[in-house]
Amino acid sequence: MVTHKAEGTDESARLAERPPRRGPARSGAVPAASPAARRRGLRLTGRGGVLAVVAGSLAAALAAHALGLPAVDGGGFVAVCVAAALLVRPSDLLSLTVSPPLAYFAAALAAESVLTLGSAGFARGVAIGMATRLAEAAPWLFLGTALVLVIAVFRGLPGSVRAFSDEVNGRARRAPRDPRAAR
Predict the structure, then answer these.
(1) Phi-psi region of 23 (alpha: psi -120 to 50; beta: other; left: phi over 0)
(2) Cα separation of 103 and 124, whole Å?
(3) Residue-level pLDDT at 34
(4) Of 173, 175, 178, 177, which Cα lies nearest the Cα of 163?
(5) Model-level pTM?
(6) Residue closest to 82 by CA, chosen among 152, 155, 148, 150
(7) In terms of C-beta density within 10 A (0-12 exposed, 13-18 middle, 19 or more buried), how is residue 134 classed?
């Protein structure tokens, strides 16, 4: 069915009656960020947090070798773990909390490989270097991992664990707990 516009109708009057658009204009303008979005600042995904731990640990391991201070290696690991735990999105905390020891191992292996390049007995040098590095860093590894867990618990890790459990067991997602409802 074809309809024709009646003569005498004013197009501008019809447009004036239309409610204003919600959302960004089509001219390509980007809407201004909300105040809450501006306060949030930098956020990382779980993978980004793990990558930050690997990169920070690698940098700390190389700096510790250059300075001759093994504490720089452990202190750098703890610092980057705390920063990652604070910057990762709450929904991705589960993947971050299980990965700091493995992330440190990967960074330490990369550092030892770089530092041992060109020496005789490469595999033996890396093995001895890894054993020494892991023995020196063990207390720092425990501290960094414990701090990640403590920070993650206060940022919503139990909810992430609950959601993961529901997903694995095929249950419908539960509603988040409201602490005020328990009173």
Answers:
(1) left
(2) 22
(3) 43
(4) 173
(5) 0.69
(6) 148
(7) middle
